[in-house]
Structure formats: structure tokens, C-alpha cells
Design a protein that fits this description.
The chain is an all-alpha fold. The protein is built from 7 helices and no strands. About 65% of the residues lie in helices and about 0% in strands. The chain starts with 17 loop residues before the first helix and ends in an 11-residue tail after the last helix.
């Protein structure tokens, strides 16, 4: 008997590759899902974290209150109060107050209807008094400094936006109804 002849081997199974395709598809779906979830959570965190902006009049009142800590030092106190009033006017009325001299500012303000004539006059006196301290080395007493503070605070309070009541908003909305159009008969 001859031992060198071997029996026929059974057929070898050859895969068609669909197993790898399914595995790759599952991994790709997991990666895409993880990226979408990460993006959703990242956007959610950025949207929640933004507080509403503080209105100009509230910020001005806070700065004026903080300036009271400097009342024993006339020049820094007056600079803080004056800068606060100018910055408030710029933000509230979109009027470029901090960049101008007092004379330029008052001349330009005089040609507008942003403030009432009494408010313009009061502001002119306030800024002139501030300029005396800032540039002429005048050292006022605490009473005068408190008057400057009161003048700045009064300007902010008189010009801050007033909330619209429900009845006023209904009146203004009634005036904004659709126009009447002539229709042919």
C-alpha cells in the first residue's frame, strides 16, 4: 500500500466580506453618534451661560455708588463721576460724549433733542464744575462733591428708559394695526 497519497481535503470557506462591512458600519455609526452628542452638549452649554446685559442706567448707578468711596479724594472722585455720566450718555443716547471736550460736547448736545433744556443746562453746570476740579486744581468740599454726585444721579434717573405698562403697549399696538385698503365693490 502506498502511503504517499492523501485523502482529498474538504473545501475552504471564503467569506464574501460582508462581515467586515457590517462591523465598519457599526463602528462608523457609533463615532458619528458620539460626535453629534458632543456637539449638542457643547452648544447647549454655551447657550445657557450668557446672562442678559445690564442696562446702561443700572450700570451707571452702580458706578456712581462705587465712586462714593473716593469722596475723600476730590479729583479721583470727580473723574469717576464725570466719566460715569459721559459713558452713560454715550450708551443711552449713542452720543459720543467721552471723546469730546466739554465745550464740544455741550455745543453738539445743544443741537439735539436728546435732553430737555433744563437737563442740558444742569449738565453744562455739572461738567463745568467737574472741569474746575480736573483741570484747574480746585478742591471742593464734601458738600460740593455730594452735589456733583446728586446732579449725575439725577441726570441718570431722569433719562433712564421707563417701562411700558400693559395699557400703553395695547394702545401702541392698536395704532399699528393693518392699514385699511379700499376694495372695489
Amino acid at each position: 500500500m502506498i502511503e504517499d497519497i492523501r485523502d482529498i481535503k474538504p473545501p475552504i470557506e471564503i467569506s464574501d466580506g460582508s462581515g467586515w462591512i457590517w462591523l465598519a458600519s457599526i463602528i462608523l455609526a457609533i463615532v458619528v453618534g458620539a460626535l453629534l452628542l458632543w456637539r449638542l452638549l457643547r452648544n447647549r452649554k454655551t447657550n445657557i451661560g450668557l446672562p442678559p446685559p445690564v442696562p446702561a442706567h443700572v450700570r451707571a448707578k452702580q458706578k456712581l455708588a462705587a465712586a462714593l468711596a473716593l469722596i475723600s479724594q476730590p479729583k479721583p472722585f470727580v473723574i469717576a463721576v464725570s466719566d460715569t455720566a459721559r459713558a452713560y450718555l454715550e450708551e443711552r443716547f449713542n452720543f459720543h460724549a467721552p471723546e469730546r471736550t466739554t465745550e464740544e460736547f455741550l455745543r453738539e448736545l445743544g443741537g439735539t433733542k436728546l435732553l430737555l433744556p433744563e437737563q442740558k443746562e444742569s449738565l453744562g453746570g455739572f461738567l463745568a464744575s467737574c472741569d474746575l476740579v480736573k483741570f484747574a486744581k480746585y478742591e471742593p468740599g464734601e458738600t460740593e462733591l455730594r452735589e456733583l454726585y446728586s446732579s449725575a444721579l439725577r441726570l441718570v434717573e431722569e433719562t433712564e428708559p421707563q417701562p411700558i405698562s400693559k395699557s400703553e403697549s395695547q394702545i401702541s399696538n392698536a395704532g399699528e394695526s393693518e392699514p385699511i385698503v379700499n376694495r372695489p365693490s
